[in-house]
Amino acid sequence: MAAKSSASAAEGAAGTSPDEGAVLAQWRASATDGQVVEFPGGAPVNRADVDVTPEVKVGQIRLLYLHPSLILFNLLNALLVTVVLWRVYPDRLLIGWFALFLIVIPIRLLVARLQWQQHWPATRAATWAIIGSFATGALWGLLAWPILTLPDILYQVFIAYVLAGMAAGAILLDVSYLPAFFAFTIPVVVPATLAFLLRGDQVSIAMGIMLAAFTAVQVAVGRRGNRWIVDTLRLQAQRENLTADLYRTTAELTRREAILRIMANHDQLTGLFNRYYLLETLGREMRRSRRQQVPITIAILDIDHFKDYNDNFGHQAGDEVLRTMGGILQGAVRGSDIVCRYGGEEFLVVFLDSTIAGALARLDEICRDIKARNYVCQDQQLPCVTLSVGVAEYPLHARTVDALIRAADQALYAAKKAGRDCIKVVEQS
């Protein structure tokens, strides 16, 4: 139970999140190569300045196919025109005209369905939308012929009313994409306007002018509606880009914060905790130890004659020994224990919830492993190294962080005085 408690305490002291764990792995990997983990370069991109035209076009095309049921009104209105003109216009022509709607409208509905299911590219979907709008508008434009041939002004007014209504309806269906809007409106209105003007009588000319004026108003309304849609889509795209940029920036700041915390708490060469982390954590662990009435043992491990080692074989060889020692120490202790690089060639191990007797057995194994390890640097076989170790226990030998470290350091001095390559425990005063 005590070991589990100390493990939790050590984890809490380390404060390593999953994100920091990934960065720490990168840190240790880079430390193996003697490199420094750097912050990612490059200035942040201002997503508000990014061209959102492609996203806007995709949004426009999506709106074209948003309500395909509106296309059915063409079929219903064509049926109404056929019924009204049935007695005054050749039935074969009316049936053929309506049959064309029965072909075009289902095809447009099928295209709309395929576009939604398969998510066509914007260019392809836009092309089909223009073709469908033009085909439907051209069918309505064929009503210019009855305008020229029917003498009754009432039917002419009816046709003009229907065509004006269809032009106005294009604002609901096609105004999100102006090419599709004009592809429908122009073939609907232009033939009928010309037909009224060709009749030549005063009433017909007036109706043609009125139809043209009404269409001009609809075009102006359509353009304004289109501008509003485009502006709305652009703002939406920019907002989404800014939101995505915010998430990326937050993730980058989190990563940089993790790197800063690792830089503050870890030694780059070995990947172990540093002296700053040790002093901050050991005091907290000693307070916990006092509350729970459990001991803490610390050991300072010093590589014997390390200066001569560096002078004879170079600093790269010395660094290789330090890295190897760091890995051995990290793997030889419990997950709840704390391993730090305390100085140049000194390491400090904190055995939580452990007496000197328990720590000495592990330290003896560590010293034998270090002494037996083969070291290689740049394909050169290096001689083995030995350790001098000083050990002290809290609260047996000291009751403060500084005093406990001084006690272990005194024991280390005694180990060196005794000929090195040995473990000494501080003598009780």
How does this structure look, described?
The strands form two sheets. The chain has a five-stranded mixed sheet, with helices on both faces. The chain is built from 15 helices and seven strands. The radius of gyration is 43 Å and the shape is rod-shaped. With about 425 residues, the chain is an alpha+beta fold. The two termini are about 30 Å apart. The model is unreliable at about 1-15 and about 30-45 (pLDDT under 50). It folds into two domains: about 1-20 and about 270-425, 2-Layer Sandwich (Alpha-Beta Plaits), CATH 3.30.70; about 55-240. β6, α15 (about 400-415) and β7 (about 425) form a beta-alpha-beta unit. It has helices at about 1-15, 20-30, 55-65, 70-85, 90-120, 120-140, 145-150, 155-175, 180-200, 200-265, 275-290, 305-315, 315-330, 355-370, 400-415, and strands at about 295-305, 340, 345-350, 375, 380, 385-395, 425.
Number of helices: 15
- The share of residues in helices is 55-70%
Total strands: the figure is 7
Largest sheet: spatial strand order: 2-3-1-6-7
Rg over CA atoms, rounded to whole Å, is 43 Å
The general outline is: rod-shaped
Strand portion: 5-15%
Mean pLDDT, nearest integer?
83
Summing up helix and strand content along with how strands pair, one would put the structural category as alpha+beta
Count of distinct structural domains = 2
| Cα-to-Cα separation, first versus last residue | 32 Å
Report the uncertain regions: 1-15, 31-45
Order of helices and strands: HHHHHHHHHHHEHHEEHEEEHE
How can the largest sheet be summarized? Answer: 5 strands, mixed
Note the topology.
Elements: H1 2-14, H2 18-32, H3 53-64, H4 72-85, H5 91-118, H6 122-141, H7 144-149, H8 153-173, H9 178-199, H10 202-265, H11 275-292, E1 296-303, H12 306-313, H13 315-332, E2 338-341, E3 346-352, H14 356-372, E4 375-377, E5 380-382, E6 387-394, H15 401-417, E7 423-425
Parallel strand pairs: 6-7
Antiparallel strand pairs: 1-3, 1-6, 2-3, 4-5
Helix pairs in contact: 1-11, 2-10, 3-6, 3-10, 4-5, 4-8, 5-6, 6-9, 8-9, 8-10, 9-10, 12-13, 13-14
